[in-house]
Write the structure tokens for this entry.
Amino acid sequence: IDIFNKTNKSVVYVTNSQTRRDRFNMNIYEIPAGTGTGFVWNKDGLIVTNHHVIANANKITITLWNQSSWDAEVVGRAPYKDLAVLKIKAPAAALFPIQTGNSDKLDVGRKVLAIGNPFGLDTTLTVGVVSALGREIQAEGRKIKGLIQTDAAINPGNSGGPLLNSKGELVGVNTIIYSTSGSSSGVGFAIPV
């Protein structure tokens, strides 16, 4: 409870929109292309999320804990690690940077917590353990190495959200699940902080 209360204001809702032109009247309109999670990195408005959450977006909107929404600018991309850094111009008083930990101190069996927006349900907490370390997976045509495997439920929409240790410190960025059904099967992966 304390970890959730300490961290939930750091977690943001990321909306990816794309523009389309109507073939008949040539009007341009915006369509939702996906949602995900991110977290506040610092008081300057930097937000960290997964690259696949914002890929091909024409517009990215960040919704903070207080339901205020801000247009985001992409300031950094690392597709080979599935990471992206965004910037918003929100007032510093509305931004609560996440506390970072050390993923090198993780061991198999350590308790971890994931906060995210699965299936569009905002600030959802799941709890599990580190199932394995140093995993390698194939995602979007590239290999991502050194991942943390966890059984904390990670579902579509959790992408880009924080994986926390039992002190409430960021140890990973939730990125992908291994599932034949598209829902959590107890095999989720996070990029080490």
Notes: The chain has a mean pLDDT of 88. The helical segments are 2-7, 51-54. The CA atoms of residues 133 and 148 lie 5 Å apart. The first helix runs from residue 2 to 7.
